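Take a look at the protein record below and flag anything odd:
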Amino acid sequence: MIWHIGCSGFYYRHWKSVFYPDGLPQRKWFEFYCQHFNTVELNGTFYKSPTVTGLKKWYDDSPRGFNFSVKAPRLITHYRQFNNSADLISEFYDTVANGLQDKLGAILFQMPPRYTYSEERLQKILTNLQAPLSNVIELRHPSWWQKSVYDRLAEQGITFCGMSHPTLPDAVVQNTDIIYYRFHGVQQLYASAYSLEELRLFAQQVKQTSAKQAYVYFNNDIGASAIRNAKDLLAII
């Protein structure tokens, strides 16, 4: 299994002095981050659609073997919720594929917490996410945690995103050759750190699957918990 372990974003001012050394210019933060991790989940693309030029700069500034997971724009996932989004998705696919090329890992489509399961909504996901890229869907309502959903998504090669979250199941779900998992922080969302015991158990569960790749991102950035936990998991595996 190939492991990709990193953080959900890296540009956090509150990591200064905790992770980024004092005196290190912000323009060198990404270079410093790349010295510790082999992947990053780009979350800025959720708020503003990326450009090929911008992504090519990420490509050029990262070392060989580094890869990026990219979060789809909220215009697709939150505002339109896959309604009349075919052109937007196609344009987004082209942008990330041309910009990141061989360093493109997975594409994350995160849905709103109130986006509950329905056959109609599942069908919209299946209809829209059909590109030959590594599509991942993060569904943040417990109604989606069912085997029939995993299987239907797998038929289209869409990976179900597992997560550690205060209000959702934390099971490691494998429905494709890829496991994609996000640590959001429990009990305190985006802040709580995970113990070594918790991370060892997670690593053991992942290793027991037949997945070929694992993308694991820590989103508990407050207090730099994400940095510590990502390093912990790297040491464990």
